């Protein structure tokens, strides 16, 4: 579904991603774990076109996407639930959801998808006219995910969906991600919440200082001595 | 006693009518500020250009300035888009020591427009002598026994009503169409909008066009009741700037209230202090807003919403 080949990414003169390659197969949940500043979000932002790779290629279903206009990616089936939610704070819950379905088929299906999102997150339905900036952190994350789902994506990328949430909410969010995959979407997730993420995903990559240092099945990485020592604190 | 009340009410009415037109000027600048994060210091000059369009259409073809509302704003929409595409965008792309190159650019565009207008049209004062210019309604026509007499000039009333209609249409566009929502989304979070599939570059161009079209509407509404000369632009740029600060940078509702406040305040200053003091009133309220209400009217609206 998604194939990233040997990308370098830099902010001005400072290179932060070095020769990173990974792939996400159809229907998989693939995780990328790593410490603060390892470059996880940078990779996400590069895939979704906000940043451009200095070299390398990014292919979505075999088609290069690092050269196309970033605003067309959502139509190609790539949705991005960005770090720190990045909602439109002065727009209502419903308007935020509308923003997720601006193009293509998603626009025609808007009303139906919206009802589905409201059935996944009933809390959002209760607050549909409220400005999104006034929601609680958990509700904002639900809305960010809902907004991503509105695009009817083939691949959905979650950047730190558990950031700043209470443990019980984290469990809810992870359950939603599982549901999303069961409905046929492919998932790429970036997380610092390593234990739960590795338990959730099919495969994972470990990113350290802008380079991929390890990869494997989630369950295998959970038992890996290096991962245990560096990320699980045992 | 009644005489004083009459003067006060008449001043208030005049202020509100003026404020409605000011609001329209302020909204255009506020929209551009919201999306582009720059103060468009050529706003008044764009209005001046629109007024010349309306003036020449009237003088050469006898087209009523209110009919020019259908001609001048679309032209200025295209002109605004061209400015954004050909001049502002290239400057945005250049990284420079001065972070506000675009603002300086807009000042330059304003100077060019003003001087080109002077060369082409001379600096004579012009106006459109429409035949309904001095028509007015009187309160005593409706209510014979009224203790206070208030008059309402026809062109002022029509201009005010049209500016309300245009504002409502704009509100509908921003609140209920995908393009309008995309413009608001771009103003609130540019990167997130991009991820959602908003063509951010196109939204910038449309917004500059829309802001120009709005101030062009204001120009068409102003010309039947005002006069026109090339340097008039800078005066209205300042007015738009004051309204934008007063309204709270980037808030449309704030700009409407800011426009009304400024209109009433100027009208009151003109009546109770002296005709020539109205521009001073403008500066007083500007400084007062910066000192006592730095967030503008929008900050008051926000506190009320939160405490509810």
Explain what you see.
The complex is a heterodimer of chains A (234) and B (308). Chain A has helices spanning 40-47, 93-100, 104-108, 110-120, 122-126, 137-149, 167-182, 194-200, 218-223, 225-232, and strands at residues 2-11, 14-24, 29-33, 55-60, 63-64, 78-81, 155-159, 186-191, 203-208, 211-217. Chain A is α/β, with parallel strands linked by helices. Chain A has a domain at 1-75 and 187-234: 3-Layer(aba) Sandwich (Rossmann fold). In chain A, strand 1 and strand 2 form a beta hairpin. Chain A is globular and about 45 Å long. Chain A starts with a strand and ends with a helix. By secondary structure, chain B is an all-alpha fold. In chain B, 74% of the residues lie in helices and 2% in strands. A two-stranded antiparallel sheet of chain B has the order 1-2. Chain B has helices spanning 2-36, 43-61, 72-93, 101-121, 139-142, 154-176, 178-188, 190-195, 200-222, 232-247, 252-272, 278-292, 296-307; strands spanning 136-138, 151-153. Chain B has a single domain, classed as Orthogonal Bundle (ABC transporter involved in vitamin B12 uptake, BtuC), CATH 1.10.3470. In chain B, helix 6 packs across helix 7 (178-188). The chains are: A alpha/beta (234), B mainly alpha (308). At the A-B interface, helix 2 of A face helix 7 and helix 8 of B. Chain B: It is a multi-pass membrane protein. Chain B: InterPro entries: ABC_transp_permease (IPR001851), BCAA_transport_permease (IPR052157). Chain B: It holds the Pfam family BPD_transp_2. Chain B: The chain crosses the membrane at residues 12-34, 46-63, 103-122, 154-174, 205-229, 235-262, 283-301.
């Amino acid at each position: 579904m998604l194939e990233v080949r040997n990308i370098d990414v830099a902010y001005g003169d400072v290179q932060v991603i070095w020769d990173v390659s990974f792939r996400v197969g159809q229907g998989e949940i693939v995780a990328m774990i790593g410490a603060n500043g390892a470059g996880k979000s940078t990779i996400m932002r590069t895939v979704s076109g906000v940043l451009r790779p200095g070299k390398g290629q990014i292919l979505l279903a075999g088609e290069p996407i690092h050269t196309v206009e970033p605003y067309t990616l959502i139509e190609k089936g790539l949705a991005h639930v960005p770090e720190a939610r990045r909602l439109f704070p002065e727009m209502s819950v419903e308007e935020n959801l509308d923003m997720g379905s601006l193009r293509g088929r998603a626009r025609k299906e808007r009303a139906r998808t919206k009802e589905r999102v409201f059935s996944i997150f009933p809390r959002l339905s209760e607050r549909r006219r409220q400005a999104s900036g006034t929601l609680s952190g958990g509700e904002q994350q639900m809305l960010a995910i809902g907004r991503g789902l509105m695009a009817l994506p083939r691949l959905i990328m979650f950047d730190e969906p558990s950031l700043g949430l209470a443990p019980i909410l984290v469990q809810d969010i992870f359950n939603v991600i599982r549901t999303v995959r069961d409905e046929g979407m492919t998932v790429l997730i970036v997380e610092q919440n390593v234990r739960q993420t590795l338990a959730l995903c099919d495969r994972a990559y470990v990113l350290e200082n802008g380079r991929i240092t390890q990869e494997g099945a989630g369950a295998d990485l959970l038992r890996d001595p290096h991962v245990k020592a560096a990320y699980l604190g045992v | 006693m009644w005489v004083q009340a009459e003067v006060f009410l008449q001043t208030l009415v005049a202020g509100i009518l003026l404020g409605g037109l000011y609001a329209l000027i302020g909204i255009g600048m506020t929209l551009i500020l919201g999306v582009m994060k720059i103060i468009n210091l050529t706003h008044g000059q764009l209005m001046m250009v629109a007024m010349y369009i309306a003036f020449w259409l009237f003088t050469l073809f006898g087209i009523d300035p209110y009919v020019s509302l259908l001609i001048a704003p679309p032209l200025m929409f295209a002109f605004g888009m061209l400015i954004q595409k050909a001049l502002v965008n290239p400057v945005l792309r250049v990284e420079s020591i001065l972070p506000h190159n675009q603002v300086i650019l807009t000042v330059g565009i304003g100077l060019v427009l003003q001087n080109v207008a002077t060369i082409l049209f001379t600096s004579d004062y012009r106006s459109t002598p429409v035949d309904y210019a001095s028509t007015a309604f009187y309160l005593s026509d409706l209510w014979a026994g009224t203790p206070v007499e208030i008059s309402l000039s026809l062109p002022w009333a029509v201009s005010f009503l049209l500016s309300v209609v245009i504002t409502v249409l704009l509100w509908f566009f921003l609140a209920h169409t995908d393009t309008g929502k995309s413009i608001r989304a771009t103003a609130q979070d540019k990167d997130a909008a991009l991820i959602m599939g908003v063509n951010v570059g196109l939204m910038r161009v449309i917004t500059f066009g829309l802001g120009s079209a709005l101030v062009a509407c204001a120009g068409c509404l102003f010309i039947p009741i005002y006069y026109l000369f090339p340097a008039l632009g800078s005066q209205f740029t300042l007015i738009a700037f004051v309204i934008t600060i007063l309204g709270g940078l980037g808030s449309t509702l704030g700009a409407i209230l800011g426009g009304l406040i400024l209109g009433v305040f100027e009208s009151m200053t003109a009546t109770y202090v002296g005709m020539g003091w109205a521009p001073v009133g403008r500066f007083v309220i500007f400084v007062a807003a910066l000192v006592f209400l730095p967030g503008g009217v929008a900050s008051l609206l926000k506190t009320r919403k939160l405490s509810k």
